[in-house]
Amino acid sequence: MTTVFRRRENDGEPANDRRLRARLAGGDLVRIAPGAFVTRADWEALSPMARHAQRVWEAAARARSELVISHAAAAALYGIDRIGPWPERIDVSTGISSGGRSSGQFRRRGRGDIAHVVGVPWQRHSVTTPLQTAVDLSADSRFLDGVVALDQALWSKRAAGALVSGAALDEHVGGMSGRGCARAARAAGFATSLADSVRESQSRVLIGMLGFPAPELQARFVLSNGRDAFTDFFWRDHRHIGEFDGAGKYRDPHLLRGRTPEEILLAEKDREDDLRRQVRAFSRWRLPALRSPRALYDILHGAGLPTTRPRPGR
Q: pLDDT, tens digit, for every residue of 125-160?
């Protein structure tokens, strides 16, 4: 758990101003909000999403007026992850259509229909619901980011259950009008509850853009030891498995579950060999292939998966 040192609560802790400046200059402490600090070790142990959520907590605690926490700020609180960096400022919604002036810690998001925004109480403020948050992001983002937000909200394997149901999403988007509704509807039509990570969502979007057939997600196979294996992507008609290989499984203590990276690597190799014996093709890619569409195109097409589009230029 991350310990936050706050001047107003700790009577000068972690130290007086001179000692505080020394610890900041030495890199031992990180300033995350005015008057709020954490140790660098604690801060670097947090995911980017958790860091943004902590910034939201600190900013909200210091706000003089009531806020409607929304968009990326609300997403961080709910655990709706994203691709790319988190914003420097905290998103809040306002009834002013233009959004008003963004300054200091806050980025004001204008919405003339603020009275109809669905939120729930949070601290002295309110935060948009998971459904409202995910739809707001999909309506205000490029297609990829909208799909990622909705996939995260719909994710069925979340420990506490999905944040949003598919039926509720369809009903909400179907009743939308005005700016962003077409973007939200397009992303909602593509979203799924089966994407286990933002990179799987990104892979699926890129697979479609490159003209490959839509894959089946989380297809079940039975390994030779009798255990089930669920693949990221499977093209049943072509007996072709595809998987995104994230580095986290070899580094994250929560994913390692007491095993060494070498043990994970060997287990993954055994699993892949077993699956290869059951299909005609097995494609695996890592993050660089998602940053270069041509690389993913070459991986899938080179393994025999058909496409309706030519090889991209880069």
A: 999 999 999 999 999 999 999 999 999 999 999 999
Residues 6+ apart with CB under 8 A from 52: 72, 73, 76, 86, 87
Nearest to 185 by CA among 238, 135, 125, 110: 135
Give the span between the Cα atoms of 265 and 280, in whole angstroms. Answer: 23
DSSP H or E run through 249: helix 248-251
* Interacting residues of 174 by C-beta distance below 8 A, sequence separation 6+: 185
Are the C-beta atoms of residues 305 and 297 closer than 8 Å to each other?
A: no
Task: Put residue 216 in one of left, alpha, beta given phi > 0 → left and psi -120 to 50 → alpha.
Answer: beta
Contacts of 95 by beta carbon, 8 Å cutoff, 6+ apart: 111, 112, 114, 115
Cis omega (within 30 of 0) on the bond before 14?
A: yes
End-to-end CA distance of the chain: 43
Q: Collapse the DSSP code of 157 into the 3-class scheme (helix H, G, I; strand E, B; otherwise coil) and give the result.
A: coil
Q: What is the pTM of this model?
A: 0.89
Cα 228–155–273 angle (5° rounding)?
Answer: 30
Three-state DSSP state, 271: helix
Quick one: which of 30, 27, 25 has its CA closest to 5?
30
